[in-house]
Amino acid sequence: MANDYLISKWRMYFKAIDAKNEGRITKEYITEDKTKFADYHHLEGTRREDMMERIEQWFDKYILQGKSGPISEQEFVDMLNDDFKADRDKFVKKMQTSFEESFEINNLDKGELLSLRGRFRNCFPGFWSGRDCI
Description:
By secondary structure, this protein is mainly alpha-helical. Helix content is 66%, strand content 3%. The protein has helices at residues 4-17, 27-40, 45-63, 73-86, 88-106, 119-122, 125-128, and strands at 24-25, 71-72. The longest helix has 19 residues, at 45-63.
């Protein structure tokens, strides 16, 4: 089982995703979020469709984890904790992959604004791995 520190980070992560503070994340929220992302970045045509599909796939895989209905904060924490208890190394790899994929989605210009080894990665060291939290 994950320690209290890690569970608190998962709760913080859920709250960051649940920007509306509804206490749940739904497919509708994902649709709204990916549309705002595409609008904000002025994506059009095929590029817009591809990016929206990538965002939805990421949410389905790493946040909803294949569930169709809304998930609460506790369900989110329980899903992560179950994965963590089942195989810690596999869990850490999955979360690292999650952040790498999220980085690729957000790094639209493939430029220096975001650097996987720089600022972006430094924002998240305690959420999923690291000697001090797991």
